[in-house]
What we know:
- By secondary structure, the protein is mainly beta.
- It is built from three helices and 52 strands.
- Strands 38, 40, 45, 46, 47, 49, 50 and 52 form an eight-stranded antiparallel sheet that branches.
- The protein starts with a helix and ends with a strand.
- The relative contact order is 0.08.
Amino acid sequence: MTVKHKLSCCLLASGAALxxxxxxxxxxxxxxxxxxxxxxxxxxxxxxxxxxFRFAAYxxxxxxxxxxxxxxxxxxxxxxxxxxxxxADTAAGDFLVSGTSAALxxxxxxxxxxxxxxxxxxxxxxxxxxxxxxxxxxxxxxPRDSAGNALPWRVVTWVSSNTVVATVNGSGLVTAKAGGSAxxxxxxxxxxxxxxxxxxxxxxxxxxxxxxxxxxxxxxxxxxxxxxxPRDSAGNALPGRVVTWVSSNTVVATVNGSGLVTAKAGGSAxxxxxxxxxxxxxxxxxxxxxxATxxxxxxxxxxxxxxxxxxxxxPRDSAGNALPGRVVTWVSSDTVVATVNGSGLVTAKAAGSAxxxxxxxxxxxxxxxxxxxxxxxxxxxxxxxxxxxSTMRFEFRSxxxxxxxxxxxxxxxxxxxxxxxxxxxxxNSSSFNNQLQYYGxxxxxxxxxxxxxxxxxxxxxxxxxxxxxxxxVFDRWYLQVAVVYxxxxxxxxxxxxxxxxxxxxxxxxxxxxxxxxxxxxxxGDNPWNPGEEVWDGVMRGFQxxxxxxxxxxxxxxxxxxxxxxQPWYLNRNPTPTDISDxxxxxxxxxxxxxxxxxxxxxxxxx
Length: 606
């Protein structure tokens, strides 16, 4: 047999048989018949992922004869053994398998095409599933090629033909929802397989109830969530079952219908969840947070003999959090002056001062009570807008500058429609200019007329702004304080509308406008809308200062005018015929027009 005929036989042989073909005994360095080319067979090949095939190589001489040539093998993808056995990778792609003769410095390559086997069918197992409502069942989908071989790692999607009866998630887990039947279909690369699901409405009885977490540690006032899971005899969860909750000790801890536990007092309790006669429980331990401080509000009270005032004590932890439900005891430092009951209600007994102390778990807080003897007092009873034809006000026409200042006064407001004037420090003109320095303190309707607004305490200030707070409670006395001052180009205003409760206040920080060319302090009405913004109610207890007093200084001045600072104007018991300055400073106001308020008389603080 010739060499060329032997080579043709080898080319027709399989990859495995190719290795047994015999080539003429030639050496690469044969000077008579030198090898000039290395050939790798086959020249190209198509394989499936992970499939194997053995490649072969031979040499070709210049005369066209074949010769055996040893080569080393390499591949750009997959792997190849020294004997030429190639193993395809699991990924699809085109790769080169190369055989190289180092001695001849020659090499050749073969193109290998790796192609995924297409999915020809999808099998779903089990083929049928029977479930009861609430149960779950696992299906498995296996994509296969045309020969029935499994094709792992292929993407599978799941769908139910009837989600009212049964649903399926992305991993083939079926959940029974209601009685009936449904077909669960798995699809991969356009091929599908399915399983039949039958759901019955037979109720699986609750065999046990698990409660998680099994224990809770809480401090008084805290809450913690428990979860109850009814289960069947196999331990499967039974969703949708009714669960009731109960605490063994509601003094220590309570529980609501959803398992939320609230710690009430130190101790222990068992929280039990019951479903269809079966129960599970969790142990709850509650510890008390120690009282670190006790705050008493308001921090001071001013009463006349016979009056009462309410104090409130709040025990707090070291972080300042309120601790409700703690026992508080009250005591007065001087029961001749003031007594206090178990709920913090103070009764003024005689003129003087006393300290009221609240104690809880060894920690205390206190408030100062100042009492005075009730005396006959007078005031100015303004009738409101409807009863005034022109104006009803008195004025200080040479006042102190708008900033700084402190104003103290008492009012008994009555309800009327429209606007009020308590007092203004503003330009004394029939035309109101809100670009000049001004401020006022009184009720203000929101929304304003012609709508029916709710009267609220207000600072009128800062270019026409109406800064409001809480609604006015009419037909009661208020002790009110306003403090104003400037820092640089900023004006600061604080209106305590129910002193001594310093939490009842309005604070406004705004622009400092140009000084008014014709300033005045106006009480009861104003010149730019006379007769339309008249105070309705009683005004008295006037104390005006040309400095900004601190809260402690204000309290001292209310108790004893002039004890801290000489008032600029003082008349605590004005009458329609006597609004003169009682401070000795000589700052006497004057009435405008002929209309006057009536005299009010009563009893109370001076």
